């Protein structure tokens, strides 16, 4: 069956990886990769950093060279948004784009990604209230960074990365986070507090437990953000970074089961048993060995590793997707790296680094290491990622002694 | 144009023409050379672009940096004297570089 037409809808990190891996594993038939943006697949992480600083171009961000698509016989179709799928029930079908263009396929993979959530608040449609997801968003944001005051709504990775970049460029930045701490869904309160202090040292004002009530305009453009407690924050520009929702509408309309993402099994197969879904759009079994929960993962690691595993399903040699999820976020002088997925109530063992601004927070469930939150401590990150991947124990008692390098504990 | 010759652990070789200013990691990933992942895109966050740099090029690149050094110490494949993270090997015009790819990056 690896001679039919493979259609991949969505030309981001996961889509690009899937076509590459399918070819690597011997998919011999035609391959079409359809994307709705005008650009060939590119790397998104620099959008909140290098692109805002004017230090990246669409060429420098490219995930694959033009020669790759030519040599691998991948038909890359850009600027086309697939709006309808007709599935036969045996894996084949037809995809139809908004333009009317259509593709018949023998096998379909959805890599449609996610889109930024927006706030349903008065003034949310004012000019200058923006989100950041794609290159066009980043270029628009970069052009507007000459404002005096930026308000970032949402203290997650994207919001904090933009806050750090803008502050370094001389913009007065206020981060407004509704939850009790920054990055509340992904790091422990201990890490969140240390990161908060670093942002404040860099001149960023951080408000937690703060809820925006409305965006106030002046002649159609945003001028301020009003908070629920009455505070009025001047804002020539507002970035809303409050998470993303999976783009699963296509799949749902085609009758595939969706539940906050396209529901797939460990082989990336959707509910029809044939269609694949990979990357941000998929609701999948946690790939962490031993875990039995389901989740959605928005990360480069997941896009790449799930797509690689999905390619084995495509070529008829299915291997389940397993691995230790990891994430990173560069926020000004902070290099934050997270290995493993902790539960919110996992305990914290803090290992201060040998100098300020460098530390690792290990997460333990009982005596079992579940994750690590590393700030400017790349070696610790590597050690924990390796330990988790190989199922090796790191003694909690020994780990609490910051005088002993973590790498010694693995030896 | 700079050229990079990648040798896989099994000895197979592939030569890729790169752009000036690309890193050895970028040239590999963009051209689908297996074994160099470069997941973080070159921000020294993942150490999935470990290579063994041919000794004759040792002085052609800046020395190993502090973070790079720390990460190589615990790379998935054991470090050797000529280990580098290939995202740190930025190519100049006319340069020809030979690297060997390790068994595993994760």
Layout of secondary structure:
The complex is a heterodimer of chains A (411) and B (106).
Chain A: E1 6-9, H1 13-24, E2 31-34, H2 58-61, H3 66-71, E3 74-77, E4 82-87, E5 93-97, E6 102-105, E7 107-110, E8 114-116, E9 129-130, H4 135-144, E10 149-153, H5 157-168, E11 172-177, H6 189-201, E12 205-208, E13 212-218, E14 221-227, E15 232-234, E16 237-240, E17 244-246, H7 249-253, E18 262-263, E19 276-277, E20 282-285, E21 294-295, H8 300-314, E22 326-331, E23 334-339, E24 347-352, E25 359-365, E26 368-375, H9 378-389, H10 396-399, H11 406-410
Parallel strand pairs in A: 1-2, 1-7, 2-3, 7-19, 9-16, 10-11, 10-16, 11-12, 18-20
Antiparallel strand pairs in A: 4-5, 5-6, 8-17, 13-14, 14-15, 20-21, 22-23, 23-26, 24-25, 25-26
Helix pairs in contact in A: 1-8
Chain B: E1 3-7, E2 13-17, H1 24-30, E3 50-53, H2 66-73, E4 83-85, E5 96-100
Parallel strand pairs in B: 1-5
Antiparallel strand pairs in B: 1-2, 3-4, 3-5
Short description:
Chain A has 411 residues and is of the alpha/beta class. Chain A contains 11 helices and 26 strands. Chain B has helices at 24-30, 66-73, and strands at 3-7, 13-17, 50-53, 83-85, 96-100.
Characteristic key phrases:
heterodimer, A: 411 residues, alpha/beta, FAD/NAD(P)-binding domain, Enolase-like, domain 1, 3 domains, five-stranded parallel beta sheet, 26 strands, globular, B: 106 residues, alpha+beta, five-stranded mixed beta sheet, 2 helices
Report on this structure:
The complex is a heterodimer of chains A (411) and B (106). By secondary structure, chain A is α/β, with parallel strands linked by helices. Chain A is built from eleven helices and 26 strands. Chain A folds into three domains: 180 residues, 3-Layer(bba) Sandwich (FAD/NAD(P)-binding domain), CATH 3.50.50.60; 114 residues, FAD/NAD(P)-binding domain (3-Layer(bba) Sandwich); 69 residues, 2-Layer Sandwich (Enolase-like, domain 1). With 106 residues, chain B is α+β, with helices and mostly antiparallel strands. Chain B has one domain: Roll (Ubiquitin-like (UB roll)). In chain B, β1 and β2 form a beta hairpin. At the A-B interface, α1, α3, α8, β22 and α9 of A face α2 of B. Chain A: This is 3-phenylpropionate/trans-cinnamate dioxygenase ferredoxin reductase subunit. Chain A: Pfam families: Pyr_redox_2, Reductase_C. Chain A: It comes from Goodfellowiella coeruleoviolacea.
